[in-house]
Amino acid sequence: MIINFLNTERNSLKMIKDKETNTIYFSEKLKERFPEISGQIVSTLDQLGAVPRFLPGTKDIWARDYMPVQVNENKFIQYTFYPDYLKKYEDIKSDPESICADLKLNTQKSDIILDGGNVVKSDNCIIMTDKIVLENIHKYTKEQLLTKLKDLFEVDKIVFIPWDRGERYGHADGMVRFIDNETVLLQGYYKTRKELFEDEFIEYLLGSLKENHLKCEFLDIDYSEKINAKYAYLNYLQTKDFILLPSLGINKDDEALEKEIKKYFPDYTDRIRKIKMNEVVSKGGALNCISWTIKE
Prior knowledge:
Layout: E1 23-27, H1 28-33, H2 35-47, E2 53-55, H3 63-66, E3 69-72, E4 75-80, H4 96-102, E5 108-113, E6 120-121, E7 125-129, H5 131-135, H6 142-153, E8 157-161, E9 176-180, E10 183-186, H7 189-192, H8 199-211, E11 215-218, E12 237-238, E13 243-247, H9 251-264, E14 272-276, H10 278-281, H11 287-290, E15 291-294
């Protein structure tokens, strides 16, 4: 089954994409829970001439999930952060409204239930897994949700892709990333390990992207059978100045990842660094998940 977007041309400012951001935030909890990784990130950013900031009042490390999505320099969308996987753990669910108040950041509130890790954006398109449809079915039909999302984020296209159940949180940022406005980079195993997925899943995934006029490239990595967190390789952190790649300490794969990213992002060739992320990856995320990037 393929879900089409509703296409209405807009005369609006282009959405801020990852490669335009210039300010990075991490959760204060990252320093507390993973001091070695936090120290490695800070040291690497210092070498790159960047200084990270840390979000106050957080209760977990996954900054991307609960912080608002920046549309333009003056518009931040604060969706309803009420993911199913945290409903039994209210004590570790961060309060984005309180954090944004501490930052003196004005946001536009939305009743749409969403995780920031399920927002992969170019300047006129957002890709999400269809988990968002399930989470909002009690309020909106699929068609209503598509229309509301397009209005909210001021984009021409909302593309739904299937939820890869190997990524338990239903996020898109471990499945696909934008290379440019017309091209996306997909996990290589959707091409090389099709036997792991139902035909309908692959048809839906590739069909949705194709119908929305997006060209597909695949991450060419020899994924080790010993690694059960393959999604991490696409969960890199990108700003206008550099890319931080999650390393899993497997030389062959890490070298292949760096080579692949340089191929698709030649402008970053001398500004790509690796961060060993095994401890964080074992908890279900990587560098994009633990960061929140904006343009100031």
